[in-house]
Design brief:
two-stranded antiparallel ribbon, mainly alpha
């Protein structure tokens, strides 16, 4: 509705001989309406979303060749490795042609079980199973 109105106004300004004073007033009016709609939308959005914050934030800092800052508590080293492999390494598989690695996923799952135990590396296993379903 507003687009039609402003479109007609712009068309009239181009086709008809309108004084410079009227054009300025019209431009100011359109600018004020645009600003009001932006402000009311922003106020409405902030009134709906009254809380934006963080419930729990944990930092762990390790010093080595590089400074590493972790935002999550992984529990054990195996849990940390599980997270890194699933999120950083195995995620790269999505960029590959999954049909080529489909037959290898079962072997990788068995190797993870053998190497880390069946109770560990659950994020990696879930991610690899999800990749296998995609194929």
């Amino acid at each position: 509705m507003c687009d039609e109105f402003f479109g007609k106004v712009a068309e009239l300004m181009m086709t008809e001989n309108i004084s410079r004073h009227k054009r300025k007033r019209l431009i100011i009016f359109i600018t004020v309406i645009t600003l009001l709609s932006t402000v009311t939308t922003t106020v409405a959005w902030f009134s709906v979303n009254t809380f934006a914050g963080v419930d729990n934030l944990n930092f762990s800092i390790c010093a080595s060749a590089q400074l590493k800052v972790g935002m999550e508590n992984y529990g054990t080293e195996i849990d940390g490795l599980d997270y890194v492999l699933a999120r950083k390494v195995f995620r790269k598989f999505e960029a590959l042609n999954l049909s080529y690695i489909r037959d290898e996923i079962d072997g990788l799952l068995a190797y993870l079980d053998e190497l880390f135990g069946e109770e560990n590396m659950n994020e990696c296993k879930d991610y690899l199973k999800m990749l296998k379903k995609l194929v």
